[in-house]
Amino acid sequence: MIATRSTNSSHRRNAFTLIELLIVIAIIGILIGFLVPAVSGALKRARVVSVKAEISQLETAIGKFRSVYNMDPPSSIKLYEAASDWAGDPDSRALIRQLWPQFNFGMDRYINSDTDQTDVINLSVGECLVFFLGGINVTNTPGVANIGGCTGFSKNPADPFARGGNREAPLFEFLPARFTDLAEIPAFPNGDGFPEYRDPLPTQTMPYLYYSSYDGQGYRDTVAPFEFDTTASGSAGLSAAYRQGAAATDPRWKVNSFQIISPGYDRQYGYGGTYVGSGSDRLPLCAAIGSTPAPTQKQRDYEADNITNFSAGELQP
User: Which value, to the nearest 10 degrees, does the dihedral of the CA atoms of residues 104, 60, 221, 178 take?
Assistant: First the structure.
């Protein structure tokens, strides 16, 4: 007699129980909990690297500027449309003479896009970076939001600010989509038509700052160091270019060249003044700068994610 095997003698499981399924889901959740911060951190580091790379590109463009004009771009200057106004500003006149020895100070000119020749254009910090590396903008009308691309400077040595004609190419390829024209005080509550440039961080609203050492002659600190109203924009304003220590006699970072500063993810510049390149407290509380009161800890904390051309990444990683 041949034995037969019952089909019920063994049973193959082909489904998870509810408890086993819940355990698998819990394990996956734990793994995702570990993975998300790691991915987020890696993405943030990659974006910081992209800002550092762009700052390096800006440094290269400033080097090209120096090779043409024999000096770094100034970080504060006034431009006058009316010929008679230059006489009252020997400092700006001297800077223009250094850059363009054949500049004609005796002619009225249109520098921005409006219809008069009477404007005084005060360029500083972020605006200087764009203006000197990019040249005349397609649209420079005060209060007009549709700022276009940069067109370089005219090859006419007597009138480099002229529009049209043969032109020197821009030294840096600024993307118009990343221009901003922040409110200024008191003359231009909607901006003056001369843009600043934002870094590539997502949702960035505040521009790069640029401080020149004026070829090692010295950084020029002011109480209100840049052209836009930092109170209205919600950003704590940098009081000075960075030093390597808290004392007023301590050397600057990039003492013979320039500083470029991004506000980082929080879009806040903080107080500035002192940055120590190593150690646990790289942004210590420091003394007052000129007539500006000493900083609070919160103001210094704003600076932790600032990205510069004198640090490896964020100031306080």
Answer: 90
